[in-house]
Amino acid sequence: CFVCGKMGATITCQKKGCDRSFQLPCASEGECVTQFFGLYRSFCWEHHPEQAVQVTPEQNRTCIICLDLVEGRKSYHTMVCPACQHAWFHQSCIQKQAIHAGVCFRCLHCQNKDLFVMETLTMGIRISKRQPSWESDQACGLVYQRHSCCNARRCLCPGGREQAEEEGSWQLLLCSSCTAKGIHRRCSYLRNSTTTWECVCC
């Protein structure tokens, strides 16, 4: 491996005539690029692709993800969105974002997807093919669950607070403002013609 000097370097630069080899864990340290699409080509620090966008970051420009300063030029460690040319980011920051965002990966500034994704793939960013990590997070799963119990001080339903019917006395009405509380129609003494209910808090 031309980066660490150890044996077992199985990745060789795809540039014709270049015989530099490296290990995947050493790629970032050696500023190598591996493209995780198409032919899965890899390049050493001397031959890796560079962004064609002709822009220079303004003084004190920050990474749109971590908000730390970026280098004063495009480099292996600093990239810019090719679509809006205003969003600058560190290579390591955009890599983390690509893993978490998955199929929703796009420029955080202009929301461009096609040009942005193709450029980042070319520059060696690996993009997850799964749903965003925040969609599968168990802590966020509760957001998608509908409230399903009667919050009356004294529930009158013989089946208990969890029982709910589509219509009638034991239909569960959710608070029309917060939807975080519910009540059986009978427990709130609402008429059958009443379609909305609001909890005490709201």
TrEMBL record:
Alphabetical keyword list: Metal-binding, Zinc, Zinc-finger
Highest taxon of source: Eukaryota
Record-level Gene Ontology MF annotations: zinc ion binding
The keyword Zinc appears for this protein: yes
An annotated GO cellular component: nucleus
PHD-type domain boundaries: 1-48
Span of domain RING-type: 63-111
Name this protein carries in UniProt: G2/M phase-specific E3 ubiquitin-protein ligase
Originating species: Eudyptes chrysocome
Organism phylogeny: Eukaryota, Metazoa, Chordata, Craniata, Vertebrata
Name of the encoding gene: G2e3
